[in-house]
């Protein structure tokens, strides 16, 4: 049986202007900071959590959770998706579907 995909509430953007973006979402938008690390700040927006990551900019990335990231990646590639970026140490894998949407597949929490 194929593993089910389940969306999380997380949306990630990456930007070269990390300081400006985090200031904007905290001050201008008034979103509460719920996560802070060296490379990422997370904000509670109400309907979703917005994570702003340092690095080369890209469009928003949605997240789907699965019990097996590698198996999900293989299934998606076979269905016409392209691997955009992956980090097996997390584990996570950014995929672009045949319709242009980029999303992350991450590991389902077992707890």
Automatic annotation (TrEMBL):
Positions of the Glyoxalase-like domain: 11-105
Superkingdom assignment: Bacteria
SUPFAM superfamilies given in the database record: Glyoxalase/Bleomycin resistance protein/Dihydroxybiphenyl dioxygenase (SSF54593)
InterPro entries registered for this protein in UniProt: Glyas_Bleomycin-R_OHBP_Dase, Glyoxalase_6
Official protein name in the record: Glyoxalase-like domain-containing protein
Organism of derivation: Dyella lipolytica
